[in-house]
Amino acid sequence: QVQLVESGGGLVQPGGSLRLSCAAAGFTFGSYAMSWYRQALGKERELVATIGRTGSWTKYVDSAEGRFTISRDNSKGTVYLQMNSLKPEDTAVYYCYVRLLPGMDLWGKGTLVTVSS
Predict the structure, then answer these.
(1) How far apart are the C-alpha atoms of 75 and 100, rounded to whole Å?
(2) Average pLDDT along the chain
């Protein structure tokens, strides 16, 4: 079955850290760039970070630059998002995403990150 399954969300205090994981199944993981998106309550879904097929390049939204790190382990079919120095405005549901073909987008169900004291 083709799927993405996120884990690692939770409640963290401002300034804290979390590491999100996304396990892929049903497709050749190493052949695709992978991304993390997030959607805060009442807001549009936004792209947070993308990593190339081999991990040789990464890209971040300005608000995540310097605080978040996207990485991948192709042997495990997993992509990660290490989030440091978390802020209340990072509170959102975080989604894993891959475009398998033009018009064929695959999303995970998301994992909730809440940053609050």
Answers:
(1) 19
(2) 97
